[in-house]
Design goal:
Blueprint: E1 3-14, E2 17-26, E3 31-41, E4 44-45, H1 52-64, E5 68-77, E6 83-89, E7 92-93, H2 94-100, E8 105-106, E9 112-113
Parallel strand pairs: 3-6
Antiparallel strand pairs: 1-2, 1-5, 2-3, 4-8, 5-6, 5-9, 6-7
């Protein structure tokens, strides 16, 4: 696991990829670094955003989890360099919620874990 904690959801790029802003303390420098990155939800694949199903999935995920504070766990990187992990709004795991709503399918793929 690379990171676990609260971040800010900026927006959903598609139903399985979010843009988040994360603040990471750097104790050695007595400062905090803020960065905005993309995080791919682990274990699912949602339809592409330019398809009808993808457009419905984005509307759904934005309604359920709008921009604001979320908890994330970053477990590694996927093949396109995005962070791979989990996004939670309260007790709701967004990957599981997307699966339950029928807006994503489970997938198994490798990642570079830290």
């Amino acid at each position: 696991m690379l990171y676990q904690g609260q971040t800010r959801l900026v927006r959903w790029l598609d139903a399985d990829t979010a843009e988040i802003t994360i603040r990471v303390p750097v104790p050695a420098c007595q400062m905090t670094v803020e960065t905005t990155r993309h995080i791919r939800l682990a274990g699912i694949n949602a339809p592409e955003k330019n398809t009808d199903a993808g457009k419905l999935a984005i509307v759904w995920v934005n309604g359920v989890c709008p921009p604001g504070p979320v908890d994330v766990t970053i477990i590694g990187f996927e093949k396109y360099g995005r962070w791979l992990g989990d996004v939670r709004l309260g007790s709701m795991d967004m990957a599981k919620a997307l699966l339950a709503a029928g807006h994503a399918k489970p997938v198994s793929y490798g990642c570079e874990e830290a």
